[in-house]
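Sanity check

After download, print the first record. It should look like this:
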Amino acid sequence: MRAWEEFKKGIFKENPVLILVIGLCPALAVSSSANDGLGMGIASTFVLVMSSLVISILRKLIPSEIRIPIFIIIISTFVTIIDYTMQAYQPELYANLGVFVPLIVVNCLVLGRAEAYAYKNGAWLSFLDALGMGLGFAFTLTLLGTIREIFGNGTLTLFNIEMINFGEGFKSALIMIMPPGAFLTLGFLMALQKKITEK
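Expected structure tokens:
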């Protein structure tokens, strides 16, 4: 069934971070904890799904010569909504993510799916494609943040609830919560995904 294929491809087969290697800036910058990775993933998924849906509905009315500026206006509308919502209801998460929430406007994952898929397909398939890609992005950011937080801090925090704390005796690897740790973790996840795909 095509609808199911469009949905599931973004989660594993065409994962935005691990396979397509797009949206790496927020993936590497805000994934020092599971909570931050999940928050960024949810925000990006919301923007991706809503903008893809609107673009696919309006695609026949959008002149191809000015489609990119129109895409950016639509995307920035939903980024503003998620930006203000997060600022009001999750101020701590908003402070942690910083400038990367407004930068979702120019995230190549969101703009790329608008151009490559939503502008050429109907609303239902565009919704499923965006949802699959968004969930794949959110899952990867959360996994990246989980691994980095456990090895770098000895803790695991999700939804602002501390789920794991290894205590003061835990020998943390400080590099894991620094930028090199993001690159190392991402490299290992890419290798693991490739190994699983080959099998």
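If your output differs, re-run the checksum step. Summary of this record's structure: The first helix runs from residue 2 to 13.
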